[in-house]
Write a structure and sequence with these properties.
The protein has 193 residues and is mainly beta. It is built from two helices and ten strands; from the N terminus they run H-E-E-E-E-H-E-E-E-E-E-E.
Length: 193
């Protein structure tokens, strides 16, 4: 889908958006689609676009991903997973058990997705956490489960509906307190093969 078609789709769905960059290269932020980021490279949208979600509304009992790239606090699972739709800490049933997830060790420096068909390479890197913070387990586990001791820097998730995530994990102190601020520096690079 080209950038013009995507902007028309957002307008048709009455979605607010903001473009950063040029008409050929940049990012379109879909403000009322979870602030999802859609990357434009050579005038084309390189992220997945879910037309149905952009034109309609997401049902409360499932999570049809709108596409693009998103930023949100994790983990999505265990007793610390937050689900915005319910205002409670839990992992959505549509995610638990519906996909596979590979957690990568903190020693892994970057993750990369290559698509020869799209002539596209996506590389994601993340800074190490600051002193006093460490990596945590972000597995999509049921809400009654405690996180394991496995430390994760990156996570790759996919499901049978061809949805895929390249997740980056930031640091966390051993104990979080109200008012604590956590930051994460992430760089995502899109290039043509």
């Amino acid at each position: 889908m080209n950038q013009h078609e995507f902007i028309n789709l957002l307008n048709q769905g009455k979605r607010r958006w903001h473009r950063i960059g040029t008409k050929t290269d940049g990012v379109i932020v879909a403000l009322d689609l979870e602030g999802r980021l859609f990357t434009i490279l050579d005038g084309m949208v390189v992220n997945r676009v879910n037309r149905a979600v952009i034109l309609g509304r997401s049902p409360a009992d499932e999570y049809p991903n709108p596409g693009g790239d998103g930023l949100w606090p994790g983990p999505e699972g265990t007793c610390f997973g937050y689900e915005y739709a319910t205002g409670k800490w839990r992992v959505p049933p549509s995610i638990t058990g519906a996909r596979y997830q590979i957690g990568l060790d903190p020693r892994v420096a970057w993750i990369e997705y290559r698509s020869p068909a799209l002539q596209l390479r996506v590389r994601r890197t993340a800074a190490l956490p600051p002193p006093g913070q460490g990596f945590i387990d972000i597995a999509d586990a049921p809400p009654q489960a405690q996180p394991s001791d496995r430390k994760t820097r990156y996570s790759i998730c996919s499901d049978p509906r061809l949805f895929m995530e390249l997740e980056v994990v930031g640091g966390s102190p051993e104990h979080l307190r109200p008012g604590d601020a956590l930051t994460l520096d992430v760089v995502t690079t899109y290039t043509r093969l």
